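During data preparation, we tokenized the protein backbone, and the record follows.
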Amino acid sequence: MNRPFDVEEYRARVLTTKGRMADAGFDTLLAADTANINYLTGYDGWSFYTPQVAVVFLALDDPLCIVRGIDYGGARVTAFMGDDQLYGYPDDYVQSTERHPWDFIVGVLKDRGLDRGRIAVEKDSYYYTAASHEALATGLEQADIVDAGHLVNWVRVIKSTQEIAYMTDAARLVENTMQAAYEAIAPGVRQCDAAAEINHAHYSGTPEFGGDYPSIVPMMPSGPGTSTPHLTWTSQPFNNGEATILELAGCRNRYHCPMARTLHLGPPPAKLADTSKVVMEGLAAALDAVRPGVRCEEVVAAWNAVINRHGVVKDSRMGYSTGLNYPPDWGEHTLSLRAGDRTVLQPDMTIHMIPGIWMDDWGVEISECFRVTETGAETFCDFPRELYVKT
């Protein structure tokens, strides 16, 4: 089986995770976050709309992977473990009012002798519901069930050489995709038609490799919609004299490289042109501040020193760790570039720095995804960092 990573890399991830578990006093970890399941086992499939979990136990060499029964074959194809570590629950557990998939998971834990001790769960995962927790707590009445927090996410924050390579490939994909967006957007063109061109460019990829589905669809608010970052597209046409914000990502083997740019049809108003220059100056200063040993809040201070001098204010974070993920987010839910985050930057952290400015009826985004190296920030993309004006 041609998996994205060698078995040795998966086992190294599990070993590191076990070390963090031991430090925290956890006997067992139940990882329900889809990205964490993939990270620990290699399992990859669009099956995260039903409960699934990776089980890491200090006394077991390899994790267990428990998925829906019809996805068991997918686990055999993609996960690195042998069949004796894989389970699929019957379909009468799916969306049932009589039983819950976590009842089956409880049964597996009992059969494997993993139903005692201190069991950590990912309470703040999108994929671990209140019903999941209730079924687990009811079934494992003799266990001490605690919150794992984002333990595995913090293991993921430092990338391997192969992970960096996939993010580098993703950068080539997003460069092509952004260029396709620039070419497709024009007065009178429907937003949905431009979105189709953007998606085609990403999925078709390069002659060497195609694109995987990103965790987030193309964000492309236009006109007054640029006052907010997370609008997608409509069937309305683009208009001359209006801006469009494009936040896209290349994705290769589930590894993302996001990028945001702003395009204006026709000569831009002075407020947009001037603010874009401030954003680019501040972004450059923040990137220059990046190096191992620097805290996230210090990078933000370098950004604020520039924008405050120009009278610009930003009250939301300006970046986050990124890499491996599944819908609905490509962020890793660990470090943030914002005041008060004292996380120390380390080599091979990968961060999307996106200092967006959103005003009452307009906005601008220009971002860079970068890797922390031994000497500073190394951006993944080679794409013009500017307000793109199309006349």
Q: What stands out?
A: The first strand starts at residue 28 and ends at 31. The chain is about 35% helix and 20% strand. The two ends are 50 Å apart (CA to CA).
